[in-house]
Amino acid sequence: MLKEKLTDFIATQFLDGERDGLELDTPLFELNIVDSAAIFDLVDFLKAQTNLNIGMQDIHPGNFATIAAMVALCDSLQHNQTQGATA
Fold first, then answer.
1. Burial of 84: CB neighbours in 10 Å, binned 0-12, 13-18, 19+
2. Which end of the chain has fewer CB within 10 Å, C or N?
3. In 10 A of CB 81, how many CB atoms?
4. Cα separations (Å) of 35 from 9, 30, 64, 68, 80?
5. What pLDDT, on the 0 to 100 scale, is given for residue 53?
6. Helix (H, G, I), strand (E, B) or coil at 51
7. Burial of 55 by CB count in 10 Å (0-12 exposed, 13-18 middle, 19+ buried)?
8. CA nearest neighbour of 25 among 69, 57, 86
9. Cα atoms in the Cβ-side hemisphere of radius 13 Å centred on 48
10. CA contacts within 13 A on the Cβ side of 59
11. 38-48, pLDDT tens digit by residue?
């Protein structure tokens, strides 16, 4: 599932593998777990995991503030790209 893969990725890349306290709603920027440069690592990871097209308009801190926000972004993009493919 995406949230588990994303949690593992963040723990490995930014927290030396430490998952304790890393929840779906953990504020990643406020706790300095990730910074603005790390968004692009997260974008690359999400693209690789989901095969979604994440456009520049989608790349802003609000969509990457928490694991839940990133999962919601992917769900929304999945829905929109699926709708576009069937329209």
1. exposed
2. C
3. 14
4. 15, 9, 10, 17, 27
5. 92
6. coil
7. exposed
8. 69
9. 9
10. 16
11. 999 999 999 99
